[in-house]
Amino acid sequence: MTPLDGSSTDTTVTGVPRPGGPGVLAGTTISRIGYGAMQLERLHGDRSAAIALLRLAVELGVDHIDTAQFYGDGLVNGLIRDALRPADGVLVVSKVGADPNPGGRIPLRAAQRPEQLRASVEDNLRSLGVDRVPVVNLRRLDTGPGLRPEGDQLVDIDDQLAVMTAMRDEGKIGAIGLSSVTLDGLRRAMPVGIVCVQNAYSLVARADEDMLGLCLSEGIAWVPYFPLGGAFPGLPKVTGEPAVHAAAQSLGSTPSQVGLAWLLHHAPNVLLIPGTADPDHLQANVAAGTLALDDATLATLDAVPTRSADVPLG
Ligand SMILES: NC(=O)c1ccc[n+]([C@@H]2O[C@H](COP(=O)([O-])OP(=O)(O)OC[C@H]3O[C@@H](n4cnc5c(N)ncnc54)[C@H](OP(=O)(O)O)[C@@H]3O)[C@@H](O)[C@H]2O)c1
Q: Which residues, in sequence order, are CB contacts of 232 under 8 Å at separation 6+?
């Protein structure tokens, strides 16, 4: 039966076949291939190109977009506000735990304290122009690339979950996810109801395989960031792996598409948010949803050694 909002399992609310097929996040059916908006910062000088990219994503069937207030100090949230309409039916997911740090070596600073998490949700509500952010990830600093907490930024996860659940009760956020979290942190948080985990993970950086398995058994979506290895130098890149190039050549696809297709094949709770500022790459990433990987190719890709993504950034 088609729900009243016009969406079905196989098509978006605007009637587009879902790239990667349907997945579920926070009880909502979405396309398994979404879009990570962080790379839009690079289009700060060309607002109309950034808006056009977001519109193209919607036209291609993307209805899950990942963002943060600290992407361009509110710039990316403002682009999403201006580009999207409620009728597009896009699930916007943001994150808190860091604040913008314009001009910094990396453009964010830790903001882990409960009052900072609350202030960051308020910033997101304002810049996105909404009454409620559908999903907010509590972005810890426990694992993965980048910052580690020091001093008063070392905050117990229970204190953070208390403010996150209070904001959910108040209706400011729809559901809670976690990011850059350890297996222990996830286990401690699960009783409050965690809908997704966003850790750095890709075909070439699979340290969190046990956590992915726990998420699968608990019905929690696994939404890897850096699914291609990110844009920062020093991180292991999917496109740097010879086995990926060999598979791409025999499939007539690109190495990036193989990396994304492998993620979709790897586990049914995987949802993708590859980032790009390039419309051709966006189309290629969406098309990766049609790539079939046979058992032999999957076995070869599964055998690729995993490398650590725990590297400093910037
Ligand atoms: N929770 C967190 O802490 C956290 C941290 C980082 C990121 N994220 C989210 O995760 C999303 C994905 O991460 P990411 O954007 O950093 O890294 P990514 O998706 O792994 O890779 C992005 C890089 O790959 C390139 N690329 C994308 N599609 C391509 C294609 N089809 N062919 C060739 N190159 C391609 C992009 O360049 P072009 O622009 O030239 O295509 C960019 O350099 C972010 O956008 C953000 O929303 C979350």
A: 145, 313, 314
Q: Where does the pLDDT of residue 2 fall: very low under 50, low under 70, confident under 90, or very high at 90 and above?
A: very low
Per-residue model confidence as pLDDT tens digits over 93-147: 999 999 999 888 788 999 999 999 999 999 999 999 999 999 999 999 999 888 8
Residue type for 247, please?
Answer: A
Residue-wise pLDDT for 186-217, tens only, equals 999 999 999 999 999 999 999 999 999 999 99
Distance 229 CA to ligand 1 centre (A): 7
Q: Is 39 in the pocket of ligand 1 (CB under 6 A)?
A: yes
Query: Is residue 1 over pLDDT 80?
Result: no
Q: Is 38 in the pocket of ligand 1 (CB under 6 A)?
A: yes
* Exposure of 6 in the CB half-sphere (CA atoms within 13 A): 10
Average pLDDT of every residue of the chain: 95
Q: Is the pLDDT assigned to residue 6 strictly greater than 60? A: no
Q: Is the pLDDT of residue 3 over 60?
A: no
- Ligand 1 pocket test, pick from 112, 226, 238, 290 with the greatest ligand atom count within 8 Å of Cβ, gives 226
